[in-house]
Amino acid sequence: MLAGVPHRDAGSASGVFNTGLQVGNSIGIAVIGVIFFGLLGSQSGPAAAAVAPQLRTGLVSAGLPASDSGRVVTQFRECLHDRLVAADPTVTPAACRTPGGQRALPAAAHPVLARAGGAAVRDDFTASVERTLWFQVGVFGLSFLLMLLVPRSAGRHRPGSGEAASGEAASGGAGSGGAGSGKAGSGSDEAPVIQEEARAGDRA
Asked: 167: domain range?
């Protein structure tokens, strides 16, 4: 890419090129981060649905009436979503608190909720990472296709073409100068011969 840059500007061109790479990497990482954290909230529903059967069974086994297990599972889904999209993870969302007027959960139900929550978070993160990677693959593929549209001769030149032309011009000038001096030398050599022949004719 830097082949067409003059030698005097090679340092500046290299610096601009590296700066462009760093800026592009920073923007790409920021965009990927936004996409990843945006997908966390959107994947909470499928993640909660995947662990709902085990959660319902565990709550019933912990002593919670079956009629109340549906309410707890619904609240678990809302709590999972609010946890994943919360700006401050240290603050407990309202959906994760026991509503007033309702019976408290049995002590054995809390480990069941913790295990289900951990499994749902892992599923959510896995799905979000997978979709983010597919986005990166699509961007790389699009970049490769755009590279094919760049003309093959863009930014290229024949190395040493200018130097070769100047060398040919210099050699041509030197050759013509040598030829002229050769002719001058031959003329000066012929003059004494003509004079000797003239003298011989006078004597005769």
From this structure: 163-204
